[in-house]
Amino acid sequence: MSERLLTTEERWRRYQRDLVAYRRRSMVRRSHPRFEHDLDIAPHVFLLRGKASMAALQQPEDTVLQTLRGRAVWTLDTAARLVSGRGFLTSPDLTGYLSHADLQEIVAQGLVGPPRQNELSVDPVYKRPPMLIVHAAEEMPPHVELPSGDRVVTLDHLFQDLMGTLGWRPDLMTRLEATYPAGLPR
Amino acid sequence: MRRPERSDVLSLLRRLRSGPLGERLILAGSSGLYGVSEEIPALTEDIDVLIDADWVGAEESFLLAEMARLGFEHQRGTSTFELAEGLSLDLVGYSRLDAVDRIGGGKTVPVMVFSDLSRILSAHGSIIELPTQGKALSPAALAATKLLTVRLEKGSKDKIQALLLIEENAGDEDFQNDLSRLLDLFDPEQIKDALSDAQMACLAVSEDAARADIQSRGYADMSQAIDQGFSLLKQLLRRRGSE
Questions:
Q1: Distance separating alpha carbons of residues B167 and B143, to the nearest angstrom
Q2: β-strands B102-105, B88-94: how paired?
Q3: Is the pLDDT of residue A123 over 90?
Q4: Which chain A residue has its CA at the smallest distance from B75's CA?
């Protein structure tokens, strides 16, 4: 069945309707004080297909954290927890950048199960066992080392990962900015 | 109506170029990508050509006769012309007399006139002659129109195509200077909205890239190219702001 073409008049009315809706949407975005500041953030897709994988933790979280100290660069919820003691996701996962070799090593050591590349999510809508969620990287993103020896992404990179994973979340960004210690480089 | 192939569009443009309308019709919209990129998907079912709406108003009978001679059937009440073989050509208006959104053209062929197109087409170098013959928007002008256009029903398509064009021309300083000069024609607040739309397009594709299955790895490459285009756009706007 062929669709009837809209006349120019009808298209014009639709365009006017779009403009009204667009202005409203723009006002909503601009109503947040972070609007201009966050325009500068280029989203980074932490869960990028081909780079990201996840493996169920086979040992307590602390053991895995300690084993990967100085090797992984933690981001998202894990970085927030390490830096400020408070995360922002409900699933108790570890999320970070790790080399392929390091991932293979901890699989062989039995710290985590076999990695998989499906059903990747940092915010699952169903309950699943705690996971190590890894973005494979040979070159680590910009990071800082905490007094504990754990490495976390810089705040700027955390915002890029956050945006590329959960979308624009001005509420979380405001909170993270307030809790990231002032002494840490951005 | 059938989805045009690149060869259809370029061949039609060559045909138009050889007649008196050739000087007046400028390939644009998503079909404009057929003129300036081999890789970026046009994702369109019709062919958009820009035309001076004031000229249409003055020379409507000539336009209708010439289009009929070329085999096009005009669709009543629209600015659409169709060929029997199924290709559809839409006239999109600009004006050299003003830069406001309005309906222009003639009584029989009313054409929507867009202020952003009117501004962009008034700038030097916005129109190029394709090697395959025919006029088209330059890559920078096409990127600017796609960054600025408001078509909510099309989702992020225009912004994605603009960012891919920017990424594809990353090494071309002329492209960057031209795009910067064209964006300078617009109010800074309008540019902020355009940047915000582009950022939202990155987010939309990043979700696809994260959820794509093993058969859809192309999403990952495209998402990275789009992010790269967004970073380049930010750099270009920052450079422009500091000048």
A1: 11
A2: unpaired
A3: no
A4: A5
Sequence-ordered list of residues with C-beta below 8 angstroms from that of B197, at least 6 positions apart, any chain: B147, B156, B159
Inspect the interface and report whether the beta carbons of A36 and B192 lie closer than 8 Å: yes
Q: Which of A122-126, B113-117, B168-172 has the lowest mean pLDDT?
A: A122-126
* B112/chain A closest Cα distance in angstroms: 7
Asked whether the beta carbons of B161 and B174 are under 8 A apart, the reply is: no
* CB-CB neighbors (< 8 A) of B153 in chain A: 14, 18
Chain A nearest C-alpha distance from B243 (Å): 18
Domain range summary for chain B, segments of one domain joined by +: 1-137, 138-243
Subunit contact A18:B152, Cβ cutoff 8 A: yes
On average, the pLDDT of chain A sits at 91
The model's pTM:
0.85
pLDDT surpassing 60 at residue A87: yes
Q: For domain B1-137, give the CATH number.
A: 3.30.460
Confirm or reject contact between A117 and chain B (CB < 8 A): yes
Asked whether the beta carbons of B203 and A43 are under 8 A apart, the reply is yes
Q: Distance between the two ends of chain A, CA-based, in angstroms? A: 57
Q: Which residues contact A178 (CB under 8 A, 6 or more apart)?
A: none
Per-residue model confidence (pLDDT) at position A1: 45
CB contact under 8 A, A35 and B101: no
CB contact under 8 A, A8 and B195: no
ipTM beyond cut 0.95: no
What's the pLDDT at A135?
96
Domains of chain A: which residue ranges? Answer: 52-179
Residues sharing a CB contact under 8 Å with residue A117, sequence separation 6 or more, in sequence order: A49, A50, A52, A53, B214
Is the Cβ of B115 closer than 8 Å to some Cβ of chain A?
no
Is some CB atom of chain B closer than 8 A to the CB atom of A184? Answer: no
Q: Give whole-number Cα distances, A134 to A53, A94, A98, B208, B215, in Å.
A: 5, 8, 6, 18, 21
